[in-house]
Amino acid sequence: MERSLYERLGSGAGIKAIVTDVVEAHMNNPVIQARFLPYRDDPDNLAAVSQQLSDFLCAGSGGPEVYSGRSMVETHRGMNISAEEYMSATDDIMATLAAHGIDEGTRNDVLAIAYALKGDIIRV
User: Fold this and answer.
1) Among the listed residues 110, 117, 116, 76, the one whose alpha carbon sits nearest the alpha carbon of residue 95
2) Domains along the sequence of the chain with CATH
3) How far apart are the C-alpha atoms of 124 and 73, rounded to whole Å?
4) What mean pLDDT do residues 81-101 have?
5) What is the pTM of this model?
6) What is the per-residue pLDDT across 63-85, written as a single tens digit (0 to 9) for each?
């Protein structure tokens, strides 16, 4: 039996570590860092957002965690995210997964999910 995406990403602890590194990558990415750098000055909000993202990824990949946050459309409404920003964020995610030793098949599965959410994120 094939392992779930959740298991292939390292379960809860692995996903949390990935999220931490993705957020850091976003803060260092010149295309999107302006959207993320304010979190450095608000560690409580950073922790809350990181936990929501971790729960979203855990629940969405087959884990037992429950995501109780807003939908992708609600979360990104009014942010006017461009295709360039979306692709830059996706590149950060893919690079972080590779840095965590996540295999290519699993990275492709995550990429497919990211692309499925694209319409809910860009310019909503």
Assistant:
1) 110
2) 5-121 (1.10.490.10)
3) 7
4) 97
5) 0.92
6) 999 999 999 999 999 999 999 99
Tell me how far CA of residue 75 lies from CA of 3, 28, 37, 71, 107, in angstroms: 30, 22, 18, 6, 24
Find the helix packing angle between 83-99 and 11-28, rounded to 10°: 130
Phi and psi of 37, rounded to 5°?
A: -60, -35
With tokens 């590194």, the residue in question is 21
Residue 1 above 80 pLDDT? Answer: no
Is 76 labelled a binding residue? yes
Angle ∠(24,112,8) on CA atoms, nearest 5: 70
Q: Are the beta carbons of 97 and 110 closer than 8 angstroms? A: yes
